[in-house]
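Page 42, continued from yesterday. The earlier attempt failed because a stray header line got pasted into the input along with the sequence. Redoing it now with the clean sequence only.
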Amino acid sequence: MKFDVVVVGGGVGGLYASYVLAKKGLKVALIEMKDEKNIGDKVCGDAIGEHHFIELGLEPPVPGFDKDHEYDGVVLFSPDEQHKILVEGRGYSINRKNFGLKLYRMAINNGVEAYLEHFFVKPVVSGSKVAGVVAKDKNGFEKEFEAKVVIDATGVASAVRRSLPREWWVSVEIPKEDYNITYREVVVGDIDLDNKYAYIYLNVDVAPGGYWWLFPKGKGVYNIGLGVQWKDGAPNPKTQYAKYIMNKLGNRVSEVIHSGGGLVPTRRPIPCMVWNGFVVIGDAAATANPVHGGGIGSAMLSAKTAAEAIIEALEKGDATMENLWSYHTKFHKVYGAKQASLDVLRMFLQRMSNSDLNFVFRSNLVNGSEVYDMGSKGDLSISIINRVKSFLTLASRPSFLAKLYRLKQFMDRAKELYLNYPSSPSGYINWLAEEQRLFDEYRKWLTEKM
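This time it went through. Structure tokens are written below.
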């Protein structure tokens, strides 16, 4: 079976990439292990900002089908829950299953050939090129799919990418501390809060290296969960959920509709996302937001930019690494450079204590619009530092100002480095060495100063 593109994985990234490519007239195969009924089913927080739909030119979710609820913003709470920051910005709680089904129908209606209940077995490697994949159906029969380009959209598993030769740049291993382990439940209850907002709670005792959330879904339904940094000695998130969150909310929860957990990459994107005949998108490329872990919108954004690069490469006649390379520069311009900056911020936040966090909230050092700008642009505003400077002349934490200065410098350097990603593979080795030096220097500074 011969195709222009074979997409492995039917999550939001894989479905959206399939749709964009097929709409341009390419012959596309989608390989997905789930059946049609469950194709969109995935454990997640279900929240996504409206801006992603605008950026993608995608119709907003429809009430009663793939939209469960709408938010006017997010409220961030300090560890002691005595202080909060309101971050305004429209967003949605989606019906994750129906949203996936809608993307699937968009893909199928534009000519994508779906091979559901098929499981990835191995890549077909020809020399230094990915030439297709082998998959098997639910009865165990193996099929070979030949392709000009294979897209790995298998999520955190990165099943295709991790099956490739170790010496290929795209096969990089992600350290486990760059993931969050999550657990969440969708519950029915009567929780006294303003349903116009989604709620995020910072507390290193409850969710070390992450946070816990409470997202209303309307009609007395809530998505509640937490994520903890995955490292040696990390607590089990399900245990933390029962110990802290259900002890706090238990008498207001009457029914658990769904529960489950998983892994979320919370870092900058992998340094190389293409090879000859091969592209990685979504969680397989670590495209989720490093600070809040949201990955639905960014997965589709990576799918769109990857599809554009594939179309251009095939128009040139061959999907070589050189011809696919523009995926990096396109994605980093719209999202990846911001991710790199936020990865620096993420590592800083993961070393802050509850006392530090309470101090930031209590002192009103950051307002909602500045938090929004950090999340959307990856910039630490100089106005925050100036505010800290004036405040700390009378405070007992003068070293905090120096740390913020250094943090801003590292964030700006990381963002600039990704904005200046090499325009061809010939510059990659030098760029990667510079990237590694920057983050090694940063980790050393964190160890010494935090």
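Notes: The radius of gyration is 22 Å.
Reminder to self: strip header lines before submitting.
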